[in-house]
């Protein structure tokens, strides 16, 4: 028999709801697979951008460095790069007979990146420290040379700007080092001026070759820059030390991209299966609406397969359109769910291929489900329930147990080393999601059994509840489907948000413990001896800490003002009790340190009087002693300022008062956060998929209500004609839909919180640092889910009552 090909697509317009739901279903399917491809590519680009943010801009391109060569040779080599610098050895330049330590250097455009204190022009630029020590003035001539001082500039100090950071070891002196160990640079204006320097500065020179480039945005661009850069350096043929930081950044970014994509694969597969089940549900609803027409076609000789193709003729165009819209939505919403917006070339084509694949699968599911429905309905075959008898929840629970074993033994995967990127164990990573899936399957099976026995329940004293229970039992299939997707949605959102939030807070807390405060600098012992006072702007936010091997010397009065602490009040109380009364100094014992008297170099004999599990800078091993208990503060290893201020604010305050410092540390940059970001990006996408599943659950619920519109209208209209108050009917529908939403939220929240609470401490990218990741505060997330669920419940109940209010009894009875 020839099917009505031309009429079929137009016939779909007679059921606009089915049309819209078909589009929405494949839109979500297309969005999931396209977003996974885009997210993985964006994660690689974001990882590359993060690694580059931790590199000096001039070190992105492979570079060369060398020393111990004649100055003329260094100048000649420096001229062969885009931005080369030559530095003389440290000597004692003489301007007025007051020689002090200094070195000369040349770097193109260096003078425009210095701050002149006096003078200017194109002569020698002398740093202010050398000018002060040697009493150098503008116009003085360098002894043994024709070069004249034309400017005095402010010394470069840490943290230096991006233009100088690759040269920091040459241009930033260590003010706490010994004489002649390091010094600021006296700059010449032209490379030819180096030949005019005194003979004692012409040997043992250093050279650096830099090649400024625009930072690559994608991994392909970075790999091309790395390969071309290394080939260029090889072509120069210089016997210098090569530095290739970009190779490590590219390798880390590739690993991050691979980890994210492999971790998302199981979730995407589950989401696709759920989406295809939604396509099957839409096809079943279509078959119910077209029952009369399909029966007529079957009577005229159409086979079940032909009837299935008729379903494709009606639903095929909406399914294709939905897939295309899903790709468009994934691209437009990329900034909302991905860690970046930069995509590798060809990523959109890959995403389009995935979308076409799921569209083809959707069409195949439509054919199979429609054919199976026609076969079962018209050929009266016995319904097979073999799949329903399989205890899927036990299978998934077994997989969850195996994942837990992997997670408890391996954490994220392989054993990690500081600075390495974890190779994520996907099986271990899937544990919390498998727990949620097992809970969802168990809940649906128990709900199906409960609704099967619900006819024994007699709640007519509460007619709203009795009617709600009857309606749920009459639609057990759609109800259990909505519950399954709802639990998955809530659990996935909670798991993704919990793990992503835990990684973010873990990076912040570990960085704080590692540094001790937001920023730190090493200072001379003059501050500890009281010879130099701290600037007034640092009082109340900065403390002085002495560091010896295995011990910290702290000021109990100010330590808690600056240090990163979980319980400042407890630490303040313990530190206030460290008062020395004899030869032995009381101390805090940290973590696993020995609980006995101990002698540490530069400190008196220490006796532990209290203990803490961990402490800033020390971690889980060491001792803490009060500064008043240390009589010889000059024997302490080193002294540091810890501050709550940003590093730039701390160093600016010290520079304003002329206080020298070195060994700066910034909490925001001290740790490589890419391992944490990789896990955070992965579970951030998990939360995004949960939002998609929540939309699927809401749409499925509203569809189930709309499909039963005529049935609800008949029962509701008859009930109101028999004396039921509209408020009772409204309460009945609220109870029906609300109970389903409450079950989904409750089961999903409990399963996700329990599984995430067990998994989060073991998903630690840096297990050698304390503290371990902890479950964040999820109450705001729970509140938002309850609010959204309430809104969906109200809308669904309103849709159910709309048919009752607009029903015409005569038409309904007919």
Folded structure, characterized:
The protein is elongated and about 115 Å long. Helices cover 54% and strands 11% of the residues. The model has no long low-confidence stretch (mean pLDDT 85). Helix 13 (392-410) runs antiparallel to helix 15. Strands 14-13-15-12-11-16-10-17 form an eight-stranded mixed beta sheet, with helices on both faces. A six-stranded mixed beta sheet has the order 7-3-2-8-1-9, covered by helices on one side. The protein is α+β, with helices and mostly antiparallel strands and 814 residues long. The longest helix has 45 residues, at 245-289.
Give the topology, please.
Blueprint: H1 7-11, H2 16-53, E1 63-69, H3 71-78, E2 83-87, E3 103-106, E4 116-119, E5 124-127, H4 128-134, E6 149-153, H5 168-171, E7 185-187, E8 205-210, H6 219-236, E9 241-243, H7 245-289, H8 291-299, H9 304-332, H10 334-337, H11 347-378, H12 386-389, H13 392-410, H14 426-429, H15 431-452, H16 463-474, H17 476-515, E10 519-523, H18 526-529, E11 542-548, E12 551-554, H19 559-562, H20 568-576, E13 585-591, E14 606-612, E15 621-626, E16 638-643, H21 647-656, E17 661-666, H22 674-707, H23 709-721, H24 726-759, H25 779-805, H26 809-813
Parallel strand pairs: 3-7, 5-6, 12-15, 13-14
Antiparallel strand pairs: 1-8, 1-9, 2-3, 2-8, 4-6, 10-16, 10-17, 11-12, 11-16, 13-15
């Amino acid at each position: 028999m020839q099917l009505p090909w031309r009429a079929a697509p137009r016939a779909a317009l007679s059921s606009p709801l089915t049309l819209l739901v078909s589009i929405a279903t494949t839109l979500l399917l297309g969005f999931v697979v396209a977003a996974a491809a885009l997210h993985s590519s964006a994660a690689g680009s974001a990882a590359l951008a993060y690694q580059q943010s931790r590199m000096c801009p001039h070190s992105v391109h492979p570079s060369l460095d060398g020393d111990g060569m004649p100055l003329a040779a260094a100048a000649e080599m420096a001229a062969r790069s885009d931005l080369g610098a030559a530095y003389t050895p440290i000597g004692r330049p003489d301007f007025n007979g007051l020689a002090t330590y200094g070195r000369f250097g040349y770097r193109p455009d260096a003078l425009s990146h210095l701050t002149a204190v006096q003078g200017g022009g194109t002569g020698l630029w002398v740093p202010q420290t050398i000018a002060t020590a040697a009493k150098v003035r503008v116009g003085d001539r360098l002894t043994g040379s024709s070069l004249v001082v034309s400017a005095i500039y402010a010394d470069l100090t840490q943290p230096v700007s991006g233009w100088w950071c690759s040269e920091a070891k040459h241009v930033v002196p260590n003010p706490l080092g010994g004489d002649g160990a390091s010094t600021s640079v006296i700059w010449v204006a032209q490379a030819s001026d180096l030949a005019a320097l005194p003979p004692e500065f012409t040997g043992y020179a250093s050279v650096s070759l830099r090649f400024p480039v625009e930072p690559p945005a994608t991994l392909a661009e970075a790999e091309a820059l790395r390969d071309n850069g290394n080939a260029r350096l090889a072509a120069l043929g210089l016997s210098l030390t090569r530095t290739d930081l970009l190779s490590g950044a590219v390798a880390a970014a590739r690993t991050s991209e691979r980890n994210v994509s492999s971790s998302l694969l199981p979730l995407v597969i589950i989401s696709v299966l759920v989406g295809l089940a939604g396509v099957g549900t839409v096809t079943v609803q279509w078959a119910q609406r077209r029952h009369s027409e399909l029966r007529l076609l079957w009577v005229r000789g159409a086979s079940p397969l032909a009837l299935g193709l008729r379903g494709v003729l009606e639903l095929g165009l909406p399914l294709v359109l939905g897939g295309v819209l899903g790709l468009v939505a994934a691209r437009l919403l990329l900034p909302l769910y991905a860690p970046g917006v930069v995509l590798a070339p060809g990523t959109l084509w890959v995403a389009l291929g995935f979308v076409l694949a799921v569209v083809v699968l959707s069409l195949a599911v439509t054919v199979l489900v429609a054919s199976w429905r026609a076969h079962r309905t018209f050929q009266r075959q016995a319904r097979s329930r073999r799949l329903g008898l399989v205890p899927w929840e036990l299978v998934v629970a077994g997989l969850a147990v195996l994942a837990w074993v992997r997670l408890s033994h391996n954490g994220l995967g392989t054993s990690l080393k500081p600075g390495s990127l974890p190779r994520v164990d996907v099986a271990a990573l899937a544990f919390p999601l498998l727990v949620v899936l097992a809970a969802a399957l168990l809940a649906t099976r128990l709900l199906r059994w409960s609704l099967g026995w619900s006819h024994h329940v007699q709640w007519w004293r509460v007619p709203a509840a009795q009617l709600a229970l009857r309606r749920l039992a009459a639609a057990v299939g759609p109800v259990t489907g909505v519950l399954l997707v709802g639990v998955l949605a809530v659990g996935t959102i909670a798991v993704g948000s919990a793990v992503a939030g835990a990684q973010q807070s873990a990076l912040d807390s570990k960085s704080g413990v590692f540094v001790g405060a937001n920023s730190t600098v090493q200072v001379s012992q003059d501050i500890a001896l009281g010879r130099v006072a701290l600037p007034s702007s640092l009082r109340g936010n900065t403390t002085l800490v002495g560091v010896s091997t295995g011990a910290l010397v702290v000021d109990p009065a100010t330590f808690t003002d600056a240090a990163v602490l979980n319980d400042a009040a407890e630490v303040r109380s313990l530190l206030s009790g460290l008062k020395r009364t004899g030869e032995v100094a009381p101390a805090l014992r940290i973590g696993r340190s020995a609980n006995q008297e101990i002698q540490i170099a530069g400190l008196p004999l220490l006796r532990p009087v209290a203990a803490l599990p961990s402490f800033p800078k020390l971690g889980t091993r060491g001792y803490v002693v009060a500064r008043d208990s240390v009589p010889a503060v000059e024997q302490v290893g080193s002294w540091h300022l810890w501050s709550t201020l940003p590093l730039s604010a701390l160093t600016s305050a010290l520079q304003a008062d002329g206080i020298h410092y070195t060994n700066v540390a910034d909490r925001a940059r001290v740790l490589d956060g890419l391992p944490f970001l990789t896990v955070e990006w992965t579970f951030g996408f998990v939360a995004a998929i949960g939002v998609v599943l929540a939309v699927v659950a809401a749409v499925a619920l509203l569809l189930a209500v709309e499909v039963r519109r005529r049935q609800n209208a008949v029962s509701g209209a008859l009930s109101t004609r028999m004396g039921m108050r509209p408020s009772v009917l409204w309460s009945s529908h609220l109870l029906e839909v609300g109970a389903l939403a409450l079950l989904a939220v409750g089961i999903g929240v409990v399963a996700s919180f329990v599984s995430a609470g067990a998994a989060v401490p073991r998903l630690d990218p840096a297990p050698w640092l304390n503290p371990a990741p902890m479950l964040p505060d999820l109450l705001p997330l729970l509140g938002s889910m309850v609010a959204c669920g309430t809104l969906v419940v109200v809308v669904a109940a309103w849709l159910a009552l709309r048919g009752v209010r607009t029903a015409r009894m005569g038409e309904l009875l007919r």
